[in-house]
Amino acid sequence: MPIIGLGAFIFFLGFNHLHKETVEYERSFTTNIALISTVLLGLMVSAEYYRNAVATAVIIVTLLSLKTRFHTIIRNITSDELFALIKFSIIALLILPFLPNNNYGPNELINPFEIGSIIVIVSFTLHLNHLVASTIASAISG
Question: Whole-angstrom Cα distance, residue 78 to residue 141?
């Protein structure tokens, strides 16, 4: 059954490509992701993962409906803010999970995972504060 679905997906992508050549239509990255997610949702339903498919569909529809807001936010991000977000992601997602959750030092007072968690929480709070301040400043200025 998934082979038939994959074949239908390829057929519709080809049809979309031919249709694109005859009609002026701009297909963006979002359209391609929506097409792929539709096929994946169909596969989830055919595998009887109904609740997961519905939950995923709701998340996808929400993200697609917020597309213009995401574009506005992304246009206003500076390179310094992007670099800070990348550094935060590295700390929170790559370094923190690998820190040992054991107590060390005198009286076992030092726990690297807890120290890393505090750093992530403080960093997240500072980033959130900066985001709110820049959003309010841009709303006031225009």
Answer: 17
Write down which residue in 68, 101, 121 finishes a domain. Answer: 68
What percent of the chain is helix, strand and coil (3-state, nearest 5)? 80, 0, 15
Three-state secondary-structure class, residue 104: strand
- The rounded distance, in Å, linking the Cα atoms of 83 and 115 is 23
Verify that 6 and 61 share a domain, yes or no. Answer: yes
Question: How far apart are the C-alpha atoms of 120 and 99, rounded to whole Å?
Answer: 13
Whether residue 90 sits in one domain with residue 37? no
Cβ within 8 Å of residue 92, ≥6 positions away: 120, 123, 124
Q: What is the pLDDT of residues 1-12, one digit of tens each?
A: 667 776 777 777
**Same-domain status, 80 and 135:** yes
Q: What is the DSSP letter of 96?
A: G
Q: pTM surpassing 0.70?
A: no
